[in-house]
Amino acid sequence: MKDLFRKREFNLFIFILFIIFGVSWRTPSFLYINNFVDILNDTAILSMVAIGQLMIIVTGGIDLSVGSSLALSGMSAALLNQYHPGIPIFMIILISIAIGLLLGSVNGLLVSQAKIPPIITTLGTMSIYRGLVFVLCGGTWVSAHEMTEVFRMFPRKSFLGISSLVYVSILIVILFLIFLNLTRTGREIYGVGGNKVASQYVGINLKKIQYIVFTLCGGITGLAGFLWVARYAAAQSETAIGFELQTIAACVIGGVSITGGSGTIIGVVLGAFFMGIVYNALTMINVSPFWQMAIQGFIIIFAIIINTVMDKRNQQLMLRKRSFNE
Amino acid sequence: MNKENSVLDLKKIRKISLLNIIWQWEIILLFIFIIVIIINSNLSPYFLDYTNLMNTTFNFIEKAIIALPMIFVIICGDIDISVASIIALSSVFMGMASQAGVNTLGLVAIGLFSGTTAGFLNGFIITKFGIPAIAVTLGSMSLFRGIAYVILGDKAFTKYPASFAFFGQEYIGNTMIPFELVLFFILAIIFGTILHKTTFGRKVFAIGNNSTAAHFSGIPVNRIRLIIFAVTGLCSGLASILLTSRIGSTRPNIAYGWELEIITTVVLGGVAITGGKGNIFGVIISIFIIGFLIMNIVVGLLLILAIMLPELLKRLKPKNSFGNVKK
Predict the structure, then answer these.
(1) CB B263 to CB A115 under 8 A?
(2) Does residue B318 fall inside a structural domain?
(3) Which of A40, A156, A207, B310 is deepest in the core (most CB within 10 A)?
(4) Complex-level ipTM
């Protein structure tokens, strides 16, 4: 039982329940099932991309280009749909995933082969990809009436009251739960983040792992780009500006160590859900949306401080346990 | 580079050929600068006009003023991506004060003070809890600009005293030299002297090369990092005064995305992103290169190229003459 309380995911879960209780006490409509479906829809894309970000942060990197590559793949999907309405929807999905994979692998190559620090690489590609979005659309945007019915309705189709958008994100969560926990490569990702030098001595290919995490993150981002554009029925050059911050926030709130080596998918999904609930609650209790950014920044700093302090305490506890056993 | 040189004896170092001088980063930057000037003057015959050149500097001197302390931050092995948000925060506070009828001197004080406080806050959290600078400034980037949005919403402050316009719009006497430009060069001399001629500067390099070793040598690592972050905040406040004075209004999205350009400038100037290496001349040249080249994609490409080039150059350099000896 004591171990359960020491788990960050569990604490976060309790905290989320606490917020739900507090808000619904003031505005009972917060508890309506429709509202929760809304929150799920709002956080589906965020939690998917945050999983990609998680893998990169676990290896000790960071990806600031997710917002831009999401916009680029989304814009490509929308333009494709606009000019060639005959292309079946699954082809468009595959193409946007492929574009995402390509953008991610460029990041991966620069980080693993050219040995540029991830923050600089992705800071650079962030503006390159965003610039390419401008080049691609020429400053105009693709709006709802220029998209086909199938394209727009894809994330909205619902089954048992839950939209396909949520099903897709659940699928991604399950896939990556299996990948990170049960496959060799998945465990190697954690190994690299724990100790780069040691992991190379036990035979982990550092370059390969770095390339894989950036490419996979790109793939998820590509899929998310299509879903984003279809869901909001608009592709603009400003799509998803600042989204990279939200994904990083979801990670640190979910207990991912920013220096790498630790972090779980469940934590990240809870982190994304937490942010969704906070934003939703703010609107519910009539707080201006202009507060969102400040609160997001505050939560990031607060969560990082809590993480660091708890990490240090856990390390001390581990040391004490070990000396006790000896 | 230093490490490798010390292994060699002095005679070998004196043998540095002309080729190696050409390969030095600052010389390459100068070439790039000349190419940029040639391209620009071909594109427009008015580019090399004295008045035009002076007026173009208005567009990038505010960024350049933040790039100076950013050299120290990056040499220390840290990074500060909240600088543009500090500009927004200081500008909003100055706007509020101006609305309440504070005079120009008071506005300057408020701008500098709020910038310094924001920078100090960054440094305090980073050094107190031992959190990587990237994580903290990522959060404060969102927090500071968020506060600006909370205060302003979709409105703007436009009422500033007439004398406040001096900082960002006026020239020195009857010459066409902007006040901003002169201020920048004074600051560049001060920062350059501190970095290269004082013990404080040497300590900064020591921290960047090996902060643990620096700590055990008796250098107050955390205090120096805290000072540097506070000074970065101070310079962001100063840049905010100049920018607000120049455009005469404050919106919450003021200076959006500047952190990228500032960091690119510093890295292109030859400051190693991993810390411990760099000098002020390279950064000053790169300020003018990027200043005359205003394009998003180009800035991103330059950033990546600047990091890749040293690796490439190492391979191109003639072996065994500048320290590329096999260990």
Answers:
(1) no
(2) no
(3) A40
(4) 0.76
